[in-house]
Amino acid sequence: MRRHHTRRQFTTVLAVSWIVLVILAAITADLLPLPAYDETLTGPASEGPTLAHPLGTDALGRDVASRVAYGARVSLLVGIGAVLLGLAIGAPLGILAGYRRKLTDAVIMAVNDIALAFPALVFALAVVAFAGASLRNVLIVLGVLGVPAWTRLIRGTTMAFSRREFVLAARLLGARDRRILVREILPNVAVPAASYAFIGMAVVIVAEGSLAFLGLSVQAPTPTWGGLINEGRPMLDTAPHITLAPSVVMFLTVLSFNLVGDRLRARTDVRQSGLEPVRQAPPAAAPSVHVVRQDTLLQVEEMRTHFETERGLVRAVDGVSFTLERGKTLAIVGESGSGKSMLIRSILGLLPGSGVIRSGSVYLDGENLTSYTPQEMRQVLGPRMGTVFQDPMTALNPVRTIGAQVTEPLRVHLGLDRKQARAEAIRLLAQVGLPDPVRALKRYPHELSGGMRQRVTIAMALSCDPDVLFADEPTTALDVTIQDQVLRLIHRLRQERHLAVVLVSHDLAVVRQWADEVIVMYAGKVVERGATAEIFSRTRMPYTEALLQAVPKLGDPPHHRLRVITGRPPDLAALPPGCAFQPRCPYAQERCALEAPPLEEDCACWYPLNVRESHGR
Amino acid sequence: MAGSGSAHLREPDRVALRVQDLVVEFRGGVQAVSGVSFDVARGETLGIVGESGCGKSSTARALVQLPPPRSGSVRLDGVELTGLKGEALRRTRRRLQMIFQDPISSLNPRRRVRDIVAEGPRLWGADDSEVDEILEAVGLDPATAATRRAHEFSGGQCQRISIARALVLRPEVVICDEPVSALDVSVQAQILALLEELKERYRLTLVFIAHDLAVVKNVSDRILVMYLGKTCELAPGAELIDRPAHPYTRALLAAVPGGNRTSETLISGEPPSPVSPPSGCRFRTRCPLATERCAAEEPVMRQVGEGHFAACHYPLL
Predict the structure, then answer these.
(1) Which of A84, A424, A474, B143 has the smallest number of Cβ neighbours within 10 A?
(2) Is pLDDT above 80 for A5?
């Protein structure tokens, strides 16, 4: 990412420099050691670039460099002026519509839509043709033409921000509308507006150029870029520089405005993910010192997933191993950033294509999945490993019916024909408890509730009769009664189909009830694992203990003081030395900050709690 | 459960906030809240629980008149808020403050944290000498807050900022709308502990809305259960959990992992659409105990125990 990032910064600096250069040239055109733009016969006519005339001369022997510099005045004045004019009219209208909403919005947007339906360039041509082709007229026409787009953009942004809770909070504090607009909304609207302004300037410069080319902008002898291009056109064969010079300058200017606008827009997204992929790293060949167990359904060995980011190497998953048998549920618990979801994605091979360093092995029935090509992997995902994620809408295509989506894997992987697939889909949907599955086939995802959508994704995950079901926070977005229904469903299907289930969850109560084995993750590593009952009753790792005591329980008396874990999970790009939990651990001793404890006897801690005498280290 | 009625309301003089027959309607006439009543005594924490669509968040917004309810009464220290307009509303409303679920969306990304917290005092012409004290009280460093913007903070710290902003005007009642649902377990415990500490320190009255019964029980003195825009049950926290009187409350408890799950307590199906709510008791379509009477007649809140009220024709107590 670093290299990519600096390259992007470099182009931005170039673009800004070019814009500054053009603006300076336009302002100081009179002062520059150039002949006047209309001074004829400053040298031989139609002469190519020379020392005296760096961009050559035109048919009348006028200096092209001078004419391009003076032409920049018109282009920039129109470009900047028209955008400011459009903004001056469009922004207040947009803010009014977006903030007031209701009738105000309806009226403004109705008028705006009509205005947008006008063929813009035809309108511009007509007005300039009638009112006369002067700088003022061109500027006003192009400015006014931009108003509807400005209104729409500002309205949308205003609306989005005025729905945010911070606006509600400001009103509760007693802020009046004017203050809310100035303090809360305008600063947020300003950045996207600035970005759009630069892109708008590029558009206007091109539009002015087109008008000038048609002779409908500022009239000769004042030079304009479009006019210059037009003038040079007849001599394209003999003196191409007359056309090329203004063309290239205009092209670079438009490109620069667009680049700066784009860059500003990227900045609007304040919260940039630290997990942006950088470059492809070849998968490190894993030294296979481990024994591949043929009798085990799923075996994960030393799984590591690292990301190269601007902030350094992020060790999202750092050496995780486990095995899983049929008919068992393994829960992976941890807080956000613990790497639990990334672990699942690493096992499934569903990682962004570049910037990821993944190593380790995954064996399904003894076959090494990490050696599979993407094509081979596609034959595994679905038929052998099913997935259910937190948000069913990410798994479902919003514009296709449930029927189309549930039958697709049946037809692709199992080769069923349309009729068989439909019958099977109905059977599957009924099995996951969808009421009226026949009708459900014709419905779209948005017509179903969250719980029903999750049932559909479970049906899809199970459609090809997989061996392992990966459920990543499958009920986190659901209400408690629905959560219970969905978890019971997964459990029932596990029994009926003799599945292995990997359940990723942050909810310890869910894990306690539904899992046979538990893996506790912290900062990308397994810190404790074992049978569920053991983990909950005889916790050894202080982090697990803290997590268990931090959760409010129904059996606790009201106002029961929860155990507070101070601090927060570590930055994966800058892990503390030694044990990653040590800065937050009440039992930490000197050794913990010096050496990272290995995972021994299913617990990664130098000073484990609740250790039986016979185990004493 | 489709409970209305106000038998559970107490004498007005001990009460900081009193809500009666609150109705919130969305465009198109769909009712999010249909005649909800409750009160909160000074220094008390009232927990409101319910699943999505039960109207708990709409109730919170209606309390602060953003937007105002369709009908009903909201009295803060005896002052009726629903009739107030303009300047009078602005002055009275500041005594109610809110904390929201989404830590990111709650804070203006373009303002510095100290400015966000100092906005209240500045608006009312007070000097902002208290701002640093509040920032420290919620566990933030005032010097850091003066230079940083919200996006440089973690979710838990953002909630601390929101709490500081809500408390700086010394409000009478603070409405917390799912304040910890977006947070990790360890951070959730920090914020819950902080709320308890601040409640003592500033003698706050809290309305605590959440979908997690265990969280609500932890912070609340009394708990109100809502379903599809109506009240079901109201009782002191421990009483409600140990001896639920309403079949819906019992079902909620059974659905909590580790709950008492039997064919009698568990409910199937999903809440009906608020566009066409069931007649009579709104819970009857999922209730294992429903009879014809439940379809014909809407139950009202009535006493079933000491400080314990339920809106059910066949309460379990």
Answers:
(1) B143
(2) no
Q: Are residues A111 and A13 in the same domain?
A: yes
Kindly state whether residues A8 and A111 are assigned to the same domain.
yes
Predicted pLDDT at A531 = 95
> Which residue range forms the structural domain that includes residue B290?
12-95+173-179+203-310
Q: What is the CA radius of gyration of chain A?
A: 33
Residue A422 DSSP SS3 = helix
CA–CA gap between residue A457 and residue A567 (Å, rounded): 37
A296: closest CA of chain B, how far (Å): 30
Quick check: A583 pLDDT over 50?
yes
Predicted ipTM of the assembly = 0.90
> Of A227, A252, A268, at which residue does a domain stop?
A268
Classify residue A53: in a domain, yes or no: no
Q: List the domain range (segments joined by +) for residue A487.
A: 298-518
Chain A residues close to B66, C-beta within 8 Å? 168, 171-172
CB atoms within 10 A of CB A320: 26
The DSSP result for A218-272, as a single string, is SPTTS--HHHHHHHHGGGTTT-THHHHHHHHHHHHHHHHHHHHHHHHHHHH--S-
Say if residue A256 is in the same domain as residue A341.
Answer: no
A248 within some domain: yes
Is-contact A227 A213, C-beta < 8 A?
yes
Split at pLDDT 50, 70, 90, the class of B28 is confident
Whether residue A429 sits in one domain with residue A388 = yes
pLDDT confidence of A423, banded at 50, 70, 90?
Answer: very high
Residue A286 has pLDDT above 70, yes or no: no
Query: Amino acid identity, residue A507?
Result: D
pLDDT given for residue A289 in this prediction: 61
Question: Residues of A numbered 544-563 whose beta carbons fall under 8 angstroms of chain B's beta carbons: which are they?
Answer: 546-547, 550-554, 556-563
| A357 plus A491 within the same structural domain | yes
pLDDT in tens, A519-528: 999 999 999 9
Residue A317 lies in a domain: yes
- pTM, rounded to two decimals: 0.85
* Residue A483 clears pLDDT 70, i.e. is over it: yes
What residue spans of B138-273 are helical by DSSP H?
Answer: 142-147, 155-167, 185-202, 213-219, 237-242, 247-255
In a domain, B147, yes or no: no
Is residue A271 over pLDDT 60? Answer: no
Of the candidates B96, B218, B254, the beta carbon closest to that of A560 is on: B218
Tokens of A368: 């090494």
Task: Examine the domain organization and report whether A225 and A357 are in the same domain.
Answer: no
Residue A580's closest CA among A256, A352, A316?
Answer: A316
Alpha-carbon distance B124 to nearest alpha carbon in chain A (angstroms): 8
Measure CB to CB from residue A554 to each of B189, B190, B241 and give the nearest one.
B241
Please check whether residue A581 lies inside any domain of the structure.
Answer: no
Residues 6 or more apart from A423 whose CB is under 8 A from it?
none
User: Which amino acid makes up residue B250?
Assistant: R
At B158, the amino acid letter reads C
Tokens at A200, concatenated: 């708008």
The DSSP element (H or E) to which A504 belongs, if any, is strand A500-505
Distance from CA of B5 to the nearest CA of A (A): 26
Concatenating the DSSP letter of every residue in A127-178 gives HHHHH---HHHHHHHHHHHHHHHHHHHHHHHHHHHHTSHHHHHHHHHT--HH
- Residue A456 has phi, psi (to 5 degrees) of -65, -45
The alpha-helical segments, DSSP class H, found in A507-541 are 508-514, 532-537
User: What CATH number has the domain bearing residue B251?
Assistant: 3.40.50.300
- Does B179 sit behind a cis peptide bond, omega within 30 degrees of 0 on the bond before it? no
Last residue of a domain, one of A503, A518, A533: A518
pLDDT of residue A269: 57
Which residues on chain B are in Cβ contact (under 8 Å) with A506?
184-185
